[in-house]
Structure formats: C-alpha cells, structure tokens
C-alpha cells in the first residue's frame, strides 16, 4: 500500500501525528438488546464524558460501535467539533446476538458495499433504525468473533471486512468475545483473507489473561487492545499489568493499545473513559516507564488507525 497515511475522523482525514493521546477503544453511544436499560444514547451525557476526557489530557477517542447499535455519527461530529477531541467512528457489525432479525440475513457482497459506502461516503443501509442514512465517514471496520470460535456470522462479517479493507485501506478492529479466538481470527483475516497484520486490531486481550496466547498473537504482528477495566470482567483487571509488562519485555511494546470500553450507562462515570488517564496510565507508568505508556497512548494508535485511504 502506498500513499500518504491519514486517520479518518468524523470531521475528516488528519495526519496521524495530530491524533495525540488516544483512547483506542471506547463507546460514547451504544445500545443493544443484550443490555436493556443500560443504553448509552444521551448526547449530553456523552458530551460531558468526552469533555472530562479532554480535561484529563485526552485528544482522541475511537468509538468501536458499529452500525445498528446507535452509534450516532452526526452527534459524534458535533461533539468532536465543539469539544475539540478527535473522534473516529466505526462501520461493521457486532456479534449476531446484538441484533434484531432485520439487521441480519446479509451476504458478503452486500456487506462489502455497505461497509465501503460507510467508509467512503458516510452512508448506511436504509433498514437501520438508529440514525439517518448519511453522516460522517467511518474510519475503521468493526467485526466480532464468537466465544472460542469463529462462527458463521463472524466468518461472514470478517470476510466482508477483509474485502472492504482491500478496497479502501480501512483498519479492521475485532471484538474478541471474552478475549478468545484470537489465533483463529488472525488465521482467517491475515492468513486466508490476506489482510496485513498491521491493519488488524484485536480487542479485549485483557479479558483472557493467557500470557502464552498473548505472546503468540503479538508475534503475528497485529495490534493488541487492552481495554477496560470493565465492570463485567473486573476479575482479570489485576492481571493487566503483568500481561503488558511481559509483552513489553518481549519487544512488543509498539503493538499495544489502551482503551476504556465503556458500554453501559452504569459504567459511564464508574470508571469511565477518563479512568484511562487519571488512574490506569499513571500506574502503568510507574511499572513500565512513562515513555512506554506514552507510546501506548500516542505513537501506537497513530500507526494503528492510519492508512492510505483509497
């Protein structure tokens, strides 16, 4: 791939060096039938969260909410402009369990057209209930694996994501269910579907704190996302530090990304996106060194989310 590298934000393409301190995986808006009563769908609350993140030193936030789950791209653009924080939006599809039947039943060619249109024109399918047909362009494709496997839905969406990457250059971000099926995901995306590893970001590695697996994944060249702490997965929080330290010592510090992954209203302020900067980063800096943590928050996301757009 040749050409000038850019990060595609909801306000347009920027130089990767402009991204700054980045929350590499979070949600300002997210609503799923799996989380009734916990919807993130209040623009004012989202704006307050983004402003607090900025006050704490944040400069960019990557929202991994794919279409059909209330990603609110127009509101993302408004908040980005008013608050002064870069925001990257996602296209793609989450796990099958998150959706009503109207969203499902698509085939690869149809998904590719939808993903590419979203990435290049800011349009999405007419049968989606969560937002208008047009809006800001997405800057990545979000897909998801199943628990310990790649099910038929995941294979469908990952195949479409790979083709969309070939047509546009877009990075691919993958939700690993409870941190599992990482090797299977890399084998499919980077092996069979020939997506360059540096264009793949695996999320939720902290939810499956298996050091051998994390090392194997790092050796493939993909980016590794450690996002949380999560109220749903707090039992693994204390293992995050040793896991990151082991990967840094093994020479993989340049592949590590940090995120907050706020997916429920209850977690918006407890701990919320700002926890990444107020608590997690300082603790990591004391253990790993400030330069290493700065790379996870600045240099690594600048490479992970940048591409030569086509």
From TrEMBL:
Q: Which residues carry this modification: N6-carboxylysine?
A: 142
Q: Where does Zn(2+) 1 bind?
A: 25, 27, 142, 261
Q: Which organism was this protein described from?
A: Amycolatopsis mediterranei (strain S699) (Nocardia mediterranei)
Family matches, as SUPFAM superfamilies: Metallo-dependent hydrolases
**Name of the protein in its database record:** Phosphotriesterase-family protein
Key words of the record: Hydrolase, Metal-binding
The UniProt record lists the keyword Metal-binding = yes
Q: What does this protein need as cofactor?
A: a divalent metal cation
Q: Which residues of the sequence carry a binding annotation for Zn(2+) 2?
A: 142, 175, 204
How the cofactor binds, per note? Binds 2 divalent metal cations per subunit.
What does the similarity note say? Belongs to the metallo-dependent hydrolases superfamily. Phosphotriesterase family.
One Pfam annotation reads PTE
Q: Has UniProt tagged this entry with the keyword NAD?
A: no
